[in-house]
Amino acid sequence: MILDAKIPAGPLAEKWGKHKFNLKLVNPANKRKYDVIVVGTGLAGASAAASLAELGYNVKAFCFQDSPRRAHSIAAQGGINAAKNYRNDGDSVYRLFYDTIKGGDYRAREGNVYRLAEVSVNIIDQCVAQGVPFAREYGGLLDTRSFGGAQVSRTFYARGQTGQQLLLGAYSALNRQIHLGKVKMYTRTEMLDVVVADGKAQGIITRNLKSGAIETHTGHAVLLCTGGYGNVFYLSTNAMGCNVTAAWRAHKRGAFFANPCYTQIHPTCIPVSGDHQSKLTLMSESLRNDGRVWAPKTVEVAQKLRKGELKVTDLKEEDRDYFLERKYPSFGNLVPRDVASRNAKEAVDEGKGVGASGVAVFLDFADAIARLGEDEVRARYGNLFDMYAQITDENPYKTPMRIYPAVHYTMGGLWVDYNLQTTIPGLYCLGEANFSDHGANRLGASALMQGLSDGYFVIPYTLGDYLATIGPKPVDASNPAFAKTKQDVEERIAKLLSLRGTKTVDEYHRELGLIMWEYCGMARTAEGLTKAKGLIHALKEDFWKNAIVLGVNEEFNSSLEKAGRVADFIELGELMVDDALMRSESCGGHFRVESQTEEGEALRDDDNFAFVAAWEYAGENQPEVLNKEALVYENVKLTQRSYK
Amino acid sequence: MSGNMNLTLKVWRQPNSETPGKLVTYKAESISPDMSFLEMLDVVNESLIHKGEDPIHFDHDCREGICGMCSLYINGQPHGPKRAITTCQLHMRSFHDGQTITIEPWRASAFPVVKDLATDRSAFDRIQQAGGYVSVNTGGVPDANEIAIPKVIADEAFNSATCIGCGACVAACKNASAMLFVSAKISQFALLPQGQPERYRRAQSMVAQMDEEGFGSCTNTGACEAECPKEISLVNIGRMNNDYLSAKLFRQEEIAHHQE
């Protein structure tokens, strides 16, 4: 299949404007004849559902949580980028575009990224108009701060709870439409399959998590806004419920899965404390505005620290190695996430790690407290410091935080064209669930931007083009595809419920996570990936023989819910490993040990890998087919990324 | 760090909202003080599953103290014994070896039990849907810096906006009143210029919906504020009462005039 990304021709700055004009429109009187399904109600889903309902479409929105306000977008801490140039520090749409392309290690599409930078300006206006309480300066105007990978201050924030405030803004817009009757909201409902009838997405099959009812919903189009799949690693910064099921089932119905191996490892998380751990907690990247990252200069000092023979606060300046400031003088502690993560791992691998496990480095605020005073530091980061103290039982105002990289965000996802449509006509994918805007590494404060850009400012235009083409006639629910897909879902549930083995689903999940982290995590080799492939395959076979799934379908059944999700994660894990094995270059968050510069930085291979890898499902236990979308750069010159 | 603990749990088990529930005793063994309270329940559940028993059902999601999904009434307190945190941020080092811990769901008729420790808090969503928003469509809004907002006002609006909608305020209140939650939302918009045009109508419709959902009245005991994981202030309730009363006493036009 030839992948047509439908990027409009012409100069970068005119693409989106021209495209909007060329898209077909649906007349206002016809909009109410269309039903649109939105799965997931985080930033992308809630903003899309609200905006489409405002236009006049009938929207059915679905989430697995008890309320749309719980979507994991709520946990984003640091901020949202926008090229407002309120600071007069040289920011522009083009600079945000450029930083994002470079930050993504030249593996994102120019057209999409430019559009993202262009609408970023509108997002801030929209959110402020909704009553989102962004941080302000004493003059009453909006405050900004800096984030990794940028030398301008373009990140708008609401203390350390930006995601929460933006989500509550989108949630309130959604609530307004629910009140007006334009959105029908289904909570505690999980999508288990997409119905493809006559080659087009025309509905979904869901399970009511309370009653177990398997239901069919029809729609003229289906939007998947279901977030990322970082929980394939078991331990990640994602919420416990985050999963790949909706996207994976769509993949098995014909939607290509792009760049699955691109995983973002976030450099500043609270380190793992033991085997019981269920998830990891992020410490916002914004902390690196004032926190300094360091490790002991020598292995001997690190050992003494670990044994408690030396106190960290007693350590002399010359015994500390501020490795980011030393190696990257112009970006310092604000290098992008992949660079900061790799350097922390390197320090630990050299034996210079700290903490009881030895798998951590320091994030130190002593200088900031001396410079600004404890009160100012508390005003800037108080809630994050409290959270750290709660989890670790240490006071970060007195001793430096211990941090280590952890799985955070997935840049891969369903392949979409410029209109956000997948390879299944009528099936769209928005936000983290698609692959399109971040390349091989996501810069901080860009995830919120993409979710809201897709939901508020892209899909309201591009969806109309498709709907105008298919016409407003009602969806035919008697098409046999509906009954067949529902039956497939019921059979799968019955099969899961028949598993009465000896190992819990969580045990499988943890095992999968260990394999993924070890072999497909921060550094990857052909040898390790090949080994992982075998291990995951064996795990999958064992799961379907030996897992324990208790209870019945007709009740609130968490073991059944988890079983379905973990089964999908195992299959995704196999694909991630295949993708990582195929891509023998290093780029962004994907570090292939075989491909590095003399200084140990990621070494791209543009001649052979400047493409999007879009995988096509070929049937049960068949190798997936690789389709390539060439990445064409007309405006930026591909160079070795440097933050020195 | 102290050693691992053995605990006795008395857990509320209830298959669904129609069936009566009861407290069931379980042993939680070899619990590390570094575990979160929910991780301790995970460990207990894994052992129940191995025995073929139905795991204890509880609501949880982000486990970072922000999504508001986790609940749990622990030894008679919403979100357990520590101040200003959610259950997912409560760690087992707050308990001691040999302790008995009683775990119950939120108790309020407006929050019916769904299963075991999980309750249905959709009443909060319906209150928000009744008017907890600024009516603005996507696009066509003014530049974000067009309206300056004094920092102290923006900060105060933010303090109200930090509510995570967990329902601890309702669970803590002897009358199961939702006033702290509702007033936090009303306050956020009442403080900001964007919220002014609908300010009094919003207060009326949200309060009306709150009453309809069956929440009790406020008697200014302050248990809500004391148990709120985000330390939402009682001041919000005063602000809400003020707006509600203004809406009752004056006609809309007069209010608009009064504001000019």
UniProtKB/TrEMBL annotation, chain A:
<dbReference type="InterPro" id="IPR027477">
    <property type="entry name" value="Succ_DH/fumarate_Rdtase_cat_sf"/>
</dbReference>
<dbReference type="Pfam" id="PF02910">
    <property type="entry name" value="Succ_DH_flav_C"/>
</dbReference>
<keyword id="KW-0813">Transport</keyword>
<dbReference type="InterPro" id="IPR015939">
    <property type="entry name" value="Fum_Rdtase/Succ_DH_flav-like_C"/>
</dbReference>
<feature type="domain" description="FAD-dependent oxidoreductase 2 FAD-binding">
    <location>
        <begin position="35"/>
        <end position="448"/>
    </location>
</feature>
<dbReference type="InterPro" id="IPR037099">
    <property type="entry name" value="Fum_R/Succ_DH_flav-like_C_sf"/>
</dbReference>
<protein>
    <recommendedName>
        <fullName>succinate dehydrogenase</fullName>
        <ecNumber>1.3.5.1</ecNumber>
    </recommendedName>
</protein>
<keyword id="KW-0560">Oxidoreductase</keyword>
<comment type="similarity">
    <text>Belongs to the FAD-dependent oxidoreductase 2 family. FRD/SDH subfamily.</text>
</comment>
<dbReference type="GO" id="GO:0005886">
    <property type="term" value="C:plasma membrane"/>
</dbReference>
<dbReference type="InterPro" id="IPR003953">
    <property type="entry name" value="FAD-dep_OxRdtase_2_FAD-bd"/>
</dbReference>
<feature type="active site" description="Proton acceptor">
    <location>
        <position position="337"/>
    </location>
</feature>
<keyword id="KW-0249">Electron transport</keyword>
<dbReference type="InterPro" id="IPR036188">
    <property type="entry name" value="FAD/NAD-bd_sf"/>
</dbReference>
<dbReference type="InterPro" id="IPR030664">
    <property type="entry name" value="SdhA/FrdA/AprA"/>
</dbReference>
<feature type="domain" description="Fumarate reductase/succinate dehydrogenase flavoprotein-like C-terminal">
    <location>
        <begin position="509"/>
        <end position="643"/>
    </location>
</feature>
<keyword id="KW-0472">Membrane</keyword>
<dbReference type="GO" id="GO:0009055">
    <property type="term" value="F:electron transfer activity"/>
</dbReference>
<dbReference type="GO" id="GO:0009061">
    <property type="term" value="P:anaerobic respiration"/>
</dbReference>
<keyword id="KW-0274">FAD</keyword>
<dbReference type="GO" id="GO:0050660">
    <property type="term" value="F:flavin adenine dinucleotide binding"/>
</dbReference>
<dbReference type="GO" id="GO:0008177">
    <property type="term" value="F:succinate dehydrogenase (quinone) activity"/>
</dbReference>
TrEMBL record, chain B:
<dbReference type="GO" id="GO:0051537">
    <property type="term" value="F:2 iron, 2 sulfur cluster binding"/>
</dbReference>
<dbReference type="InterPro" id="IPR006058">
    <property type="entry name" value="2Fe2S_fd_BS"/>
</dbReference>
<dbReference type="Pfam" id="PF13183">
    <property type="entry name" value="Fer4_8"/>
</dbReference>
<protein>
    <submittedName>
        <fullName>Succinate dehydrogenase / fumarate reductase iron-sulfur subunit</fullName>
    </submittedName>
</protein>
<dbReference type="Pfam" id="PF13085">
    <property type="entry name" value="Fer2_3"/>
</dbReference>
<feature type="domain" description="4Fe-4S ferredoxin-type">
    <location>
        <begin position="154"/>
        <end position="184"/>
    </location>
</feature>
<dbReference type="GO" id="GO:0009060">
    <property type="term" value="P:aerobic respiration"/>
</dbReference>
<feature type="domain" description="2Fe-2S ferredoxin-type">
    <location>
        <begin position="22"/>
        <end position="107"/>
    </location>
</feature>
<comment type="similarity">
    <text>Belongs to the succinate dehydrogenase/fumarate reductase iron-sulfur protein family.</text>
</comment>
<dbReference type="InterPro" id="IPR009051">
    <property type="entry name" value="Helical_ferredxn"/>
</dbReference>
<dbReference type="InterPro" id="IPR025192">
    <property type="entry name" value="Succ_DH/fum_Rdtase_N"/>
</dbReference>
<dbReference type="InterPro" id="IPR017896">
    <property type="entry name" value="4Fe4S_Fe-S-bd"/>
</dbReference>
<dbReference type="InterPro" id="IPR036010">
    <property type="entry name" value="2Fe-2S_ferredoxin-like_sf"/>
</dbReference>
<dbReference type="GO" id="GO:0022904">
    <property type="term" value="P:respiratory electron transport chain"/>
</dbReference>
<dbReference type="GO" id="GO:0009055">
    <property type="term" value="F:electron transfer activity"/>
</dbReference>
<dbReference type="InterPro" id="IPR050573">
    <property type="entry name" value="SDH/FRD_Iron-Sulfur"/>
</dbReference>
<dbReference type="InterPro" id="IPR012675">
    <property type="entry name" value="Beta-grasp_dom_sf"/>
</dbReference>
<dbReference type="InterPro" id="IPR001041">
    <property type="entry name" value="2Fe-2S_ferredoxin-type"/>
</dbReference>
